[in-house]
Each structure stands twice: as structure tokens, then as C-alpha cells.
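Appendix C: a fully annotated inverse folding record. The material below is reproduced so that readers can follow the format used throughout the book. The structure is listed first as C-alpha cells, followed by the designed sequence.
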């Protein structure tokens, strides 16, 4: 791409990206750098994913001059390419398929008993559509955000202020490491066999549909989310979990509801399992998995293994070039201003560890930009809400009930469905996308819990499994940080019926002088 103000439409960007992905050397560096701007760069962002792009955009909006360097021919990073966007597509499919299978042969739903749907068709659909978001981000960044970038060009760190890329040397006041993360490897014989996949390889290399049985290794977010999708396609899914699944969810009751619904869908969850070997056939393809469990040796015949053992920050370049300090998991250690152990060098996004989520990447990039431009910032992701998908959306904020009771003397809990022997037979919570469940399968309509400090009346925890579960946390997060009370929550306005009942639950109890659980 020539230097200067040359214009590419979104469609033209899409064509260029596709060509660069197919023939990166032939296309060469994609350069959008203003040679008529003599200002020194305020920061070079190594990586144009969510953290780098949003950080650069924020800095540019503040009047600064950022530069993004990325080895890919597009901005946006792994999220739209092989990570969170396909994950959300698969989770949408899981929700739709669970509904269709739950009501198979009823109402207008076709009979699906014994039928397996294609995974490859969904993967192919994603592959065809993923260039669109990339093209929009390249167009937006250049034409609307006025961000300078050098793409399709791997960066080499020279020192704490200097980067080399595409044969050019660039210097800046600060360096921002936004190199992302990658799937952690499976350390077991046979991990290299055809048919063994991670979240990255399934969208890049899946060439045929799996057979009727899939083995999922891991019990964290990615393992659960993909396992539920595989299950929803009608396949037998065996999850081999070293510790316990859904361990991220801090509330035991919420976690139990999610696991119960997963098992109800037919997922076989084997805790305390350690994979010993991935067995192969004569063609070099997966034939089975061998694991040690509390009950003894387990062998599962399968031609498809999906492992999700966490993500590994891509910190090696920063260590080799700069000697930045890492934690025990390989994440770059930063302070509240995103500064690393090397003066003038910042790190953001997945590179600095969990939670490895889009909201954290974007926010950390923006906070680093603000810090470089002279603002005082305090970045503490441990205070933020989190989420995952089973067949449902799952979100949580703050403390679980056990932790709350250990910390506070007067804990009040409000929840739906009611905590009675037949509570699951009540079609609540009910709202968007849960109404059929509420009417005909009430125990599948979801679970919500609001945890309060009865003395200060403050919200200290909120947990939701269902649909629309993520919506409330976009407002609760900000309000809880400001000391939101049950009375203030109950005074908010809500649509009815809606899937987030926290406001309604709060309003039912807000009038009490001494709060009691419900």
C-alpha cells in the first residue's frame, strides 16, 4: 500500500486483506504513515489487536501520535480472526440448537432425535465472514480515527524506544507491548495427531466433520464453551477435567446450576482426569484418548480432540529484547499504570494475564495511552465482572455467597428461582429468549442471585445464568464500584419482561429497614 492519503473502501480493504493472507510476501508491508508529520511518535504499539488499536485510538483522540506495527495485514488481532468472534458464533449456535433439541417434535420444531448437525458448515461460514470486521477496522482506523500503522510487517524490538519493521527504524517516547496470547500446548504423546485441535486450529484447519464422539480436555472458559457447542450438534461429548469445571464462577450455587444443565444436555464431565496419551491410527489421525481418573484408566474412542488448557502470553520477544519481568504464568508484570519493569515500556491486553477478555484489552490499551500522555490512571482488572458461555450466557460480578459470608457479618441474598424444594419448577427468571423454557421447561429458564451487605445495603455480588445475562453487568459494574445500594438499584427503571431481574428483586426488598433474604 503506498504511503500517503490513498483511499481504500471497506470492500477494497477486504480484498487486500484476503490477498495478503494468501500471499503475504507478494503483498508486502501495508503502510499508512504520514511522512509529512515531523512529530516524534508518542508511542509505538506492537500489536494491533483490541488493546493496541483502542490504545492508539485513545492516544490519537488526545492529540498524541501513535504508531501500530503488526505482522498481520489487518487490525483487530485474534478476536475476529480465530478467537472471540467464532467463540460467540458457536455459542449462539449452541443456544439455538439447545432450544431446538429441547422442543424437538413439539410446536414448530422438527424432530432432531438421533440427528447430528455439521460443525464444519459453521466453521466454513465463519471463515467466509471473518474478513469483514478486519476490513471495517482497517478502514475506520485510517479514514476515521487517523491512526498510523504498518501492517503485514513483523516488528523487532531494538530497545525500549525503538522498533524495526519492514526495513525501517521507528522511535517513540514509549513502547506499548500488545502482543497477545496463544493457546497453551497439550503436553501428552499424540498431541500432534490430525484431529487434535485448539480454538485457533479448529477455524484454520478443520477439513471435515468430526465423528459422533468428541473429547474435550480442560474445564475453563474455552473448554466449556466449545464443549457445549459440540454437544448441541448432537454428538457425545466427554470432558476430561483435571480439577473441577466452571471453577471461575465464584458462587457455588450458580456453578452447580450451570453444571446440572450441562449434564442434563448429556455432557459427560469427568473430574480429576489426567490425559496420558492421544492414541492414533495408521494414517496419523486421532483414534482415541487414554486418561487416568479417580475410577481408574479410561479409554474413549474418538477422531476429534479439543484441548483448552488456558492461554500463554506471547512475552518471549519482550523478554529477549528488553528483559521485562514476568509472573509465574509468563505474563508481563505491570503496575496500575500498565508500566513494566523497564522504564518507558508498557504492556496491555492478554500479554499481562487474566482475564484474557476483549473488555480488558480495550480498557488496558486506553489506560496505557492515558498514562503515556500524562494522566494519572489506576487499572485494576480484578475488580471487574466476568462471563462465559455454557449453552447459556453466564455472568458474575463481585463475591460469591460463601466468600461474602466469610467477609461480612450480615449477608442478604435475593434470588430466582425461589429457594424451595420445588423452586426449579417455577418459570423464573423469565424474559427475552427464555419464555418457551419458562412455560414448558421452567427449570431451564435460568438462575439469578443478588448478594448484599445487609448493614450498608450495598450490592457485593451478582450472578446470572440465562439469556441476557451479560447485559446487566455493563451497568452494574460501574454502579457497584460507586457503592450501589439495594435502594438505588430498586429505583432504576427496567423493561418487563426482561431477563435481568436484579432491579425487580431489589425493589421487592428495598422498603425493608432491616433487610432479609428472599
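Designed amino acids, in order:
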Amino acid at each position: 500500500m503506498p504511503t500517503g492519503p490513498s483511499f481504500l473502501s471497506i470492500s477494497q480493504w477486504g480484498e487486500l486483506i484476503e490477498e495478503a493472507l494468501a500471499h503475504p510476501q507478494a503483498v508486502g508491508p501495508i503502510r499508512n504513515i504520514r511522512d509529512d508529520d515531523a512529530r516524534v511518535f508518542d508511542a509505538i504499539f506492537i500489536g494491533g489487536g483490541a488493546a493496541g488499536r483502542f490504545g492508539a485510538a485513545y492516544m490519537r483522540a488526545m492529540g498524541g501520535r501513535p504508531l501500530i506495527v503488526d505482522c498481520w495485514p489487518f487490525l483487530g488481532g485474534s478476536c475476529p480472526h480465530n478467537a472471540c468472534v467464532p467463540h460467540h458464533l458457536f455459542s449462539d449456535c449452541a443456544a439455538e440448537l439447545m432450544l431446538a433439541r429441547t422442543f424437538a417434535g413439539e410446536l414448530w420444531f422438527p424432530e432432531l432425535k438421533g440427528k447430528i448437525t455439521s460443525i464444519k458448515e459453521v466453521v466454513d461460514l465463519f471463515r467466509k465472514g471473518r474478513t469483514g470486521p478486519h476490513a471495517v477496522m482497517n478502514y475506520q482506523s485510517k479514514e476515521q480515527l487517523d491512526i498510523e500503522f504498518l501492517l503485514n510487517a513483523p516488528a523487532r524490538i531494538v530497545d525500549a524506544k525503538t522498533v524495526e519493521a519492514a526495513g525501517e527504524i521507528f522511535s517513540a517516547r514509549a513502547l506499548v507491548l500488545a502482543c497477545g496470547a496463544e493457546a497453551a500446548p497439550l503436553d501428552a504423546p499424540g498431541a500432534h495427531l490430525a484431529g487434535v485441535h485448539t480454538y485457533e486450529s479448529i477455524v484454520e484447519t478443520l477439513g471435515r466433520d468430526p465423528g459422533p464422539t468428541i473429547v474435550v480436555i480442560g474445564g475453563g472458559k474455552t473448554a466449556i464453551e466449545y464443549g457445549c457447542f459440540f454437544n448441541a450438534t448432537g454428538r457425545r461429548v466427554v470432558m476430561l477435567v483435571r480439577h473441577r469445571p466452571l471453577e471461575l464462577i465464584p458462587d457455588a450455587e450458580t456453578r452447580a446450576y450451570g453444571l446440572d444443565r450441562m449434564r442434563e444436555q448429556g455432557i459427560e464431565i469427568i473430574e480429576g482426569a489426567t490425559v496420558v496419551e492421544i492414541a492414533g491410527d495408521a494414517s496419523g489421525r486421532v483414534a482415541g484418548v487414554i486418561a487416568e481418573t479417580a475410577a481408574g484408566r479410561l479409554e474413549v474412542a474418538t477422531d476429534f480432540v479439543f484441548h483448552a488448557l488456558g492461554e500463554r502470553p506471547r512475552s518471549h520477544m519482550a523478554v529477549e529484547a528488553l528483559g521485562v519481568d514476568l509472573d509465574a504464568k509468563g505474563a508481563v508484570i505491570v503496575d496500575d499504570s500498565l508500566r513494566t519493569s523497564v522504564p518507558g515500556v508498557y504492556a496491555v491486553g492478554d500479554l499481562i494475564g487474566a482475564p484474557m477478555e476483549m473488555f480488558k484489552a480495550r480498557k488496558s490499551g486506553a489506560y496505557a495511552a492515558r498514562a503515556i500522555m500524562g494522566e494519572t490512571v489506576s487499572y485494576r482488572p480484578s475488580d471487574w465482572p466476568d462471563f462465559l458461555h455454557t449453552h447459556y450466557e453466564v455472568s458474575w460480578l463481585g463475591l460469591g455467597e460463601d466468600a461474602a459470608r466469610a467477609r461480612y457479618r450480615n449477608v442478604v441474598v435475593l434470588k430466582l428461582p425461589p429457594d424451595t424444594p420445588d423452586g426449579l419448577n417455577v418459570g423464573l427468571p423469565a424474559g427475552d429468549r427464555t419464555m418457551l423454557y419458562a412455560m414448558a421447561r421452567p427449570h431451564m429458564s435460568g438462575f439469578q442471585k443478588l448478594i448484599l451487605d445487609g448493614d450498608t445495603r450495598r450490592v457485593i455480588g451478582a450472578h446470572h445464568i440465562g439469556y441476557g445475562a451479560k447485559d446487566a453487568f455493563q451497568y452494574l459494574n460501574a454502579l457497584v464500584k460507586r457503592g450501589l445500594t439495594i435502594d438505588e438499584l430498586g429505583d432504576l427503571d427496567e423493561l418487563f419482561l426482561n431477563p435481568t431481574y436484579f432491579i425487580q428483586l431489589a425493589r421487592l426488598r428495598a422498603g425493608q429497614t432491616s433487610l432479609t433474604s428472599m
